[in-house]
Amino acid sequence: MVVIELVPVFQPIVDTAGGINHIGYEALIRGKKLLHLRSASEVFARAEEFGGIKALDQAIRDLELKVGLQILSDHQRMFLNMPQQALRDPDWLVLRSAASKLVIEVSEHARLSVADMVWLGDFREYGIQIAIDDFGVGQTNLEMLSKLRPEYLKLDLSFVRRGDFETVRKIRRFAEDWETKLVVEGVETEREAIAVLDAGVRYIQGFIYGRPKEAAYWYQRWPISAGQKAPP
């Protein structure tokens, strides 16, 4: 049996105000088998190699923390996905040790109880910020927004895929009313970037500004001026 090696990769999230500045990176996981990187779905399909889903989740978390924190500059944060099964798991309180450098991402598809939201909110006492991922296609309601008060809403990439930029504009206004930052995901082309910027969006994540890369790639930072794409 060929064993998969876990490989963390990091995709930048940019602030387009006054130029293109990286505010942080979303940590993602890939699996290395032979000479190729495999998708996260294949990694999780073979979770038994790591002792099951819970053990795999923790191994991914620990690796992303160990590697990802090293690429952050003073004002950047790592966006770390928290699976639903990790909610209220005391093993995840380890995140407190890097609180000032983290944004916890919780999928809008997750079914959060009031206790889950209180548990997540407690992280804020340590300086951790919260993002709701996949926003616009899941189960977020006003109670969830009111209790979590997330610093970020990450708009599901389906809105960009179908070119629904008027809805992007409306959700940006909605986010502003809730005093949270809207991050639009899935921006891959110059046309999409122009449309998203025209909708008044400031924060963007997508291939046009950087693909997911291993940490060594991001150690070599470069200045990026307004309107300039990331290097290939």
Structure description:
This protein has 232 residues and is of the alpha/beta class. The protein contains 8 helices and 9 strands. An 8-stranded mixed β-barrel has the order 1-2-4-5-6-7-8-9. A hairpin with a 5-residue loop joins strand 1 and strand 2. The C terminus is likely disordered.
Please outline the helices and strands.
Blueprint: E1 5-15, E2 21-33, E3 36-38, H1 40-45, H2 53-68, E4 77-81, E5 102-107, H3 114-122, E6 129-135, H4 142-148, E7 152-155, H5 158-161, H6 165-177, E8 181-185, H7 190-198, E9 203-205, H8 215-219
Cα separation of the termini: 34 Å
For the biggest sheet, the summary is: 8 strands, mixed, barrel
SSE order: EEEHHEEHEHEHHEHEH
Using the coordinates shown, work out and report the CATH topology of the domain at 10-25 and 76-219: TIM Barrel
Give the DSSP E fraction (strand runs of 2 or more residues).
15-25%
CATH class category name of the domain at 10-25 and 76-219: Alpha Beta
Shape: globular
In terms of per-residue confidence, which ranges show pLDDT below 50 for 5 or more consecutive residues?
Answer: 222-232
Give a count of the beta strands, DSSP E runs of length 2 or more: 9
Structural class: alpha/beta
